[in-house]
Specification:
Blueprint lengths: L1 H12 L7 H14 L13 E3 L6 E2 L3 E8 L3 E8 L5 H15 L12 E5 L2 E7 L6 H7 L5 H16 L5 E3 L8 E3 L5 E3 L6 E4 L2 E2 L6 H5 L23 H17 L13 H9 L9 H5 L4 H10 L10 H22 L1
């Protein structure tokens, strides 16, 4: 299918811009059916446009704008902030797309392609109607976090078992998990990700600031304030630590250590450095969402200060799936 679509794109680009409408319509129909699109070459202005000048979201490195793909499909257009130096922006976009473009899984945000408009390079993905998991859970208090956590674990297991190079996400937080129009969770934002072969990353050209980035509320103690690049390198185990924090965030609807408001607070830095556990939440609404002994045990295993003692993504997926199945069976028998 992609080969056929690639040929259609070549035919379209050979036509005068005023005569490309039929090809655009056909490509749009094919994309609707298969949810895939040829990654080469970069998207042309006849295929993609910014539909709103207002930024829809903002992150530490990039902003997100809404766009229209093939005249019909809403997409997100992610681009570095204007004040990021051109060389840095280009390097980061290349690094992120180098990982992201390889991935295809129901719980990983799809990469459609990239587009350059003037001096700005955009990374294009489907628009996620419900935004990120943090906003979604806060505005929908009755949503059950366990099915979402199972989906995130499925996505993380896919990344950690990816072949021929496994993928370390590197920045797993509630803000980097998006919710589709169907209410499903998709892992997003691969700006801190790396491909790893036999325990060694495939790239060694990342800057010192790249190793220091990331929110300390989700950062494992072994990579906090590293003295060398190697000490700051993210791993599967640091992803697992962050997943445990995401579990806590989904159940409580709050960031880890929410009582410390400022991310730059020295108390928070001390906690992160030591790898201290957050206090177990006992509020009735949190317990009602499913934070029981089993869930808390899994979280604390994810936060073990010894990276080698943390469970694998496969193990987490198995335990969460079993918990969800057991609960569904109990609900069914009672019904």
């Amino acid at each position: 299918m992609e080969e056929w679509m690639s040929e259609l794109r070549k035919q379209m680009m050979s036509l005068h811009p005023t005569k490309r409408g039929r090809h655009i319509k056909l490509l749009s129909e094919l994309y609707s059916c298969c949810q895939t699109y040829p990654l080469e070459p970069a998207l042309d202005t006849c295929e993609i446009e910014v539909s709103s000048k207002m930024r829809a979201a903002r992150g530490g490195f990039a902003g997100l704008w809404r766009g229209l793909f093939l005249g019909k499909h809403e997409v997100g257009m992610k681009a570095p902030h204007f004040y990021v130096p051109d060389e840095t922006a280009q390097r980061r976009v290349q690094r992120e797309t180098g990982v992201w473009r390889r991935l295809k899984h129901p719980h990983v945000l799809p990469f459609i392609g990239w587009h350059t408009l003037g001096l700005v390079s955009y990374m294009i993905s489907p628009w996620m109607k419900h935004g990120d998991a943090v906003d979604y859970l806060q505005t929908n208090p009755t949503v059950d976090p366990l099915p979402l956590l199972v989906q995130v674990a499925e996505g993380l297991s896919y990344l950690h078992n990816f072949q021929p190079e496994l993928v370390v996400h590197g920045d797993l937080t509630g803000r980097n998990i998006l919710i589709s129009h169907t209410g499903d969770a998709l892992i997003a934002d691969f700006g801190q990700s790396e491909l790893v072969v036999e325990g060694e990353p495939t790239s060694s050209s990342n800057s010192a600031s790249w190793y220091l980035s990331g929110n300390i509320r989700w950062k494992a103690p072994e990579i906090f304030e590293p003295e060398t690049k190697q000490q700051g390198r993210r791993t599967k185990e640091t992803d697992i630590f962050a997943f445990g924090r995401v579990m806590l965030q989904f159940f409580t609807r709050q960031v880890p250590f929410a009582h410390i408001l400022n991310d730059r607070d020295d108390k928070l830095k001390t906690i992160a450095r030591r790898g201290d556990f957050p206090e177990r939440p006992c509020a009735a609404d949190v317990v009602a969402r499913g934070l029981d002994d089993g869930m808390w045990q899994l979280m604390t295993e994810c936060w073990d200060v010894n990276p080698g003692h943390r469970p694998s993504a496969d193990n987490i997926l198995l335990r969460l799936s079993s918990a969800l199945e057991a609960r569904n069976n109990a609900d069914h028998s009672q019904g």
